[in-house]
Amino acid sequence: MRLPVATTLLMLALTSHSPVPAQAQASGDAVRRGEYLATIMDCAGCHTPGKFLGKPDFSRAFGGSEVGFRIPGLGIFYPPNLTPDRETGLGNWSQADIVKAVRTGVRPDGRMLAPAMPYENYGRLTDADAAALAGYLKSLKPVRNAVPTLVGPNEKPTAPYFNVVMP
């Protein structure tokens, strides 16, 4: 009689559901995939304060850059805050908004991202990878960091920048 009870208990233990729902596990996997993609795409390379100055502030990773790109004829663009901060980052953007911007360069307000953002290359992301990247960015700790505003081609910059050579 003991063997069937022990066997039953073992079977119950082996087949019981995880305390984490399958959907949450899948989204955890997607977030890890998004982290991997953000790493190999080097998102933090442009979007982390101090990175261009050789002193990255990883406590504010993805919080935007205080150093911009000067693109001749267009102006100076500062890599924005990619964290879900509602005031200075992507907190008011949906995951679909992020996917669209990453793939097409079009922001939710209809404006185009700076040409330094390689959205033409990122447009080749699979649907799953684009969603994973967006999910990862939405999962980050919000960082309040307002980057300098865009400087037009004939305006005087108030923050550091470097020149981008266009082919």
Helicity, in percent?
A: 25-40%
Give me the count of strands: 3
The tally of domains stands at 1
Name the average pLDDT.
85
The proportion of residues in beta strands is 5-15%
The span between the termini is 81 Å
Question: What global shape is seen?
Answer: globular
Q: Give a short account of the largest sheet.
A: 3 strands, mixed
Write a concise keyword list for the protein shown above.
single chain; 167 residues; mainly alpha; 3 strands; 6% strand; disordered N terminus
Describe the structure.
- By secondary structure, the chain is mainly α.
- The protein has helices spanning 2-15, 22-40, 43-47, 95-104, 119-122, 127-139; strands at 68-71, 75-77, 161-163.
- Strands 2-1-3 form a three-stranded mixed β-sheet, with no helix packed on it.
- Helix 2 (22-40) crosses helix 6 (127-139) and helix 4 (95-104) packs across helix 6 (127-139).
- 39% of the residues lie in helices and 6% in strands.
- The relative contact order is 0.19.
- It has one domain (24-163).
